Amino acid sequence: MPDDSEEILKTRKFLKARLLRDYSTFRGHENEHDNIRQLLKRTAEMGESNSMLLIGPRGSGKTTLMNAVLTDLMKNKDFVQNTLIVYLNGNLHTDDRLALKSVTIQMQLENATDGKVFGSFAENLAFLLACLKAGNKRSKSVVFILDEFDLFCSHHNQTLLYNLFDVSQSAQAPICVLGITCRLDVIELLEKRVKSRFSHRQVFIFPNGEDFDAYIKLFGELLSIPSEKQLKEQSERVAGLKHLQSNELTFHRNHFQPSKYKFHKKYTESWNKHIAGLVKNASVTKALQAVFDFDISQAFLKSFIYRLVAHINNAAPMSAQITAESISQLAASYEIDDKVELLCGLSVLELCLVIAIKHHSEIYDRDPFNFEIIFSRFNKFAKVSSTMQGIERPVALKAFEHLRNMELLLPLTATTCKVQKEFEMHKMALTYTQINQTVQRYQALPTEVQQWSQSSII
Amino acid sequence: TRLAEGTPRRSIQLSSIVEKRVFNEDDIINTPKRTKARKSISIKSADHDGDDDYVPELSTPKKTPQKTPSKGKRSTTKSSTSDVSGTPKTPSQKLKMIRSGEIKPSLEKRGILAGSEKGKTDLQIARERLHVSVVPQSLPCREKEFDNIYTFLEGKIQDQCGGCMYVSGVPGTGKTATVTGVIRTLQEKVTDDELPPFDFLEINGMRLTEPRQAYVHIYRQLTGKTVSWEHAHSLLEKRFTTPAPRRVTTVLLVDELDILCNRRQDVVYNLLDWPTKAAARLVVITIANTMDLPERLLMGKVTSRLGLTRLTFQPYTHKQLQEIVTGRLNGSTAFKGDAVQLVARKVAAVSGDARRALDICRRATEIADAAASKPENSSKDSMQCVNMMHVQQALAEMIASAKVQAIKNCSRLEQIFLQAVAAEVTRTGVEETSFMGVYTQIETIAAFMGASTPTPGRALRICSKLGSERLLICEHSRNDIFQKILLNVSMDDIHYALKVNNTN
Known about the structure:
By secondary structure, chain A is an alpha/beta fold. Chain A is built from 21 helices and nine strands. In chain A, helix 1 runs antiparallel to helix 14, helix 2 (30-46) packs across helix 3 and helix 17 (348-363) crosses helix 19. Chain B is built from 25 helices and eight strands. The longest helix of chain B has 23 residues, at 2-24. Chain B is globular, with a radius of gyration of 33 Å. Chain A: Its main location: nucleus.
């Protein structure tokens, strides 16, 4: 079926693009969405000044919500004409000086030319404030989006925050300050005069932790192909994005374009049927439940699905593309302990040292150790063993250093005082369970070592 | 010795050659050399005397066309936004004009005018009136403080002597609004010729990047020019220390005084020392939050100069807050009386911050607006009005504690992790737990609940996720299983959220 295989390739491309680049589709939380949209709309239309904080755990879609609201508003011509959007990120704009330069450029003030700002930091601040003070209800509204808001709180004196909030609470140019952060206690980071000027509107975004059915439904939705009508609706939704002219806010540049994809009706139907069958499958539900138990965020689910989608290839028929087995396999791969994998790659000598460390830790209740202690313990075993005899001290030291470099052993203190290598004290960053699992899983481990690992008595 | 003598001579010769060439033959010399020479001159003069050199440079128009024609050509496209003058401007010229105050800072105007007054509903009008930025003509409940500052300032202006005053109070109690209100009243009196004229200057500590910029700001408000702080300082020193006939009184308002204090306290000292000079006729009003700032932070000599004329703004009581809000509403019926009272009582119990009360009221109008726009409600009560329920919702939103909600919306393993931390704290009795102890608790709890135990690596990921939300306070995961974990929520919150009763 040459036709079908082409469609399968197209499906993979479509699903990948939708997972990765659909920056502005936000599901659920209608109230919060409406709240922010109304706020921005009032700022743009009536010239009201406002401030708001958007708070939610990592991966809960705060930025996506922001993007979705902006996409909605971009259809509104009044909004496009009457607002300037200034985007700041706490990770990029690490101090007020940088942030201020960026603001000056994005607002296209007089002292900025071609992305270069003239004058000192103090002059820039004074000029920006003078500009904002000169504004009134007749001037354009400015929407400040502060991503990673909590990092702005650590700036010197919180000058930028004070001034932004102060402008929003005085009769100057209409601005809206919108902070996005994942810290729940962000308000406590604000100085009291900054806190007083902040309007205390907080919008919390929490992914719903109780609704597993919705999660399963979302899984099916993210994998299925929309109908032609839905595709058209979606492409209409993102059409307004071309009005967004911002150099800092870049989500619109490489956005997912649904209008580029077209599927045969018959193919779409059979694919969606296949996916619907998967969703009902008990083993799929079980695998997803394990994922859901660990992390309920949509971002995590998307990365999970992306790995599924990446395995689609056109050589196999459609029914063999995403199967219940591949899903449970993938979910199981999330449960694997990486450290055990790492330990399985060690040489027998290194594993013997780890076992010696384990014995030491068990006997002395996780007391710190150095090379000498471990080597003497290992030597006791090596003397009576048939395979480990004749291992020299430098070789063992090398193995010990290797363990240290892999950070399976952590030095007790970070000080670089002149302690000889052999006498430096360490602690072990492994649990006993992990070591036991390794001993069981290790390929071709000498029986002596296995027996020694069971008990320290030789 | 010959070499040592030789080198300076050669450099002198070189520089003289360059100068000669510049002045004699204009055409041959290429532009980079010339701009370099010019730049060095301007930098030198800027270092020596800050503002005087801008004027001559600007007043030499014959030089500007010579200067790098390519640059000027490029800047024509950009300067279309500025409507000061049609001449092409390079950025550095623009900067000079900004510094000399020739370019007025401006914002882009909006294309469409904001909505007219007529189409607005009662709620919208109320919301506009409740905005913090709409300061009323006379502040309610601050009459006594107003009189206090008024008599002080009026006396100082009429006696034509200098003085200091220190105003303190927690944020949002009407300090700055009252002082600017007094100044406005005094300025009205000046226009009626009932009072000798005076200058009013205003600086805010938080609007400065460093304390010394205060000189620059003061000087800019006097003349409109921006100069370096050293220069501004010497000019201000000259102005305030030398007696001049017909000097008018200057009132200087210093907001956020505590930011101006650095270790040396030279700026605060100067600002408070000038009023003591007979020639200055400077009246300084300082505003800060803490009542005991002069004793706590300032040096003895500065405290002594600050004097004992002080005024403290008390936080608003619930009655005063209610009066403020009803004063803003100005007889509008958008609010129910008991709704305002609820806001006032709730806010007064926490901080007595007027901004807070006004913001909550504004949020309540938004909620009422949203509720009225819904079809099922609009038929029931046609009169849009903010009632108790709306205020309740606004209060819940704005005095929010979302920790319980956050715990409820954690994933199952995250909830187990939180329970494990709580269990470890109860077991050891110490607040600070280590990851290893928590992990053993996780194993126990997971076995008890029949859930699969996460591997240590995944547990570390959960830990850092909870740490980023600040439900926990934890170290960097580099410390692996030895990192210390603190619980940032109360244990009762966890139990309440997870509905774990006293079963274990």
